[in-house]
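Data deposition worksheet. Section B asks for the primary sequence of the deposited chain exactly as it was used as input, without tags or linkers unless they were present during the calculation. Section C holds the resulting structure in token form. Section D is free text for depositor observations; keep each observation to a single sentence. Incomplete worksheets are returned to the depositor.
Section A, Depositor: J.P.
Section B:
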Amino acid sequence: MLWRWLVFVSCASLVYSYPSSEDEQTPLKLETPLQGVLRRYALSQLSNSQVEGLHRAETSDAQVWAVGPSHVDVFFQQPERQWDLPAPAGGSVLPTSVDDLHLSDGERTLGTLSNSTYHTVYHPLYEVEEFMQTMASTHPHLVELINLGHTAEQREMIGMRISKGDEELRRSGRDSVSKRVGFVITGAQHAREWIATSTALYLAHALVADGGEDFALSSWLDYFDFYIIPVPNPDGYVYTWESDRLWYKNRQIVGPAEKCVGVDMNRNWGYKWKSKSKLPSFDDVETEGRAADSDPCSTWYPGHRPFEAPEVNNIANFITTLPALKAYVDLRSYGQMLSTPYSFSCKKVPKDAEDQLEAALGAANAIKQVHGTSFTTGSLCEQLYRASGNVVDYMYARAGIKFAYSVHLRDTGTYGFSLPAEWIRPVGEETANMVRFLAGFISGHGKKDRKAA
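Section C:
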């Protein structure tokens, strides 16, 4: 077993200001930075003992940030702590401040896509909702807000429909006669993946931007109706701002006697769901160690049944109402991967795998054209690990969306989930170019739209 390298990062010790009213969420404030360490363990394979090591890590002060076929990233809040495995060998980099990660230091204007200051910081939920309301009021002929239902903590889930359908058709509910096809984009199912939500907001802005602006996507409204859900997990997202920056699951109570809360939304979808998919695995064989009942305190707890998470159920119900869906993108972080189905198996191959991979390769190239960022491509199981109940599998196999992808955005582990805010715009720009390529590939009108500068 080879142990390659470790990377040090800085996290922040946070003091939280609670809302002064029910309608306003005050952003958190930064105090003295607390040094943590993110260690990458390079693995040739994940053995049973290493699976147990993962479980020990997540039940201590450590958190498993990412798992892949060749590595495991474990974040230790106390740098002197070690994983109960042979110590990794290799170089290190100095801690990097992420003090600019969270806060808006003043009013951020939407403006034009290229000049907007909005995409320079991360935003709490109330600012995200204000963004959507501004989009709808500024572009009433293009943007419609959609109430998807309520979360476990009774927050409203809001999405946007961005479309050129005329208002009469919209009011009469006769949208199904439209010749355009549907393109769905979701932000962070996992609460701590803030860059996924920020990128969803950037893409929404790009869809209403003037066609002459770099990275504008408005010309594709001639061919697609876009449906964007920036915050699929509102309760968890708020919790990352008010209590635990690295919270992962939703916030539902999973049982009257359970000491832990929350379901991993991306293991709760109703295709190949399993109650015993607690820990990551890279093969299609259930071992005795993985056959134990799932632990509600696990980061990867899939719930008691599929669609138990109200947020998952709301989105699935919404998807069933949408006609002619052709594309789905699940924005995630981190890893710089563009993945096709399946997640539940590394052996099963979709019947549309050739077309899916061809589009993915072109989309990865479109990403690279913008800022030189390299993305890998392949099935989600091969690039990450085998996991049942995944949204991409559901969207492809149950919702019938041929081009369904999971897109793990920047970076590859230097900052992980704490990607500095200065990267929000570059990530948005390269992701917009990815969407541009996918839209062109799927519609057959790829040559009509100029490439982003």
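Section D:
The chain is about 25% helix and 20% strand.
The CA atoms of residues 8 and 37 lie 5 Å apart.
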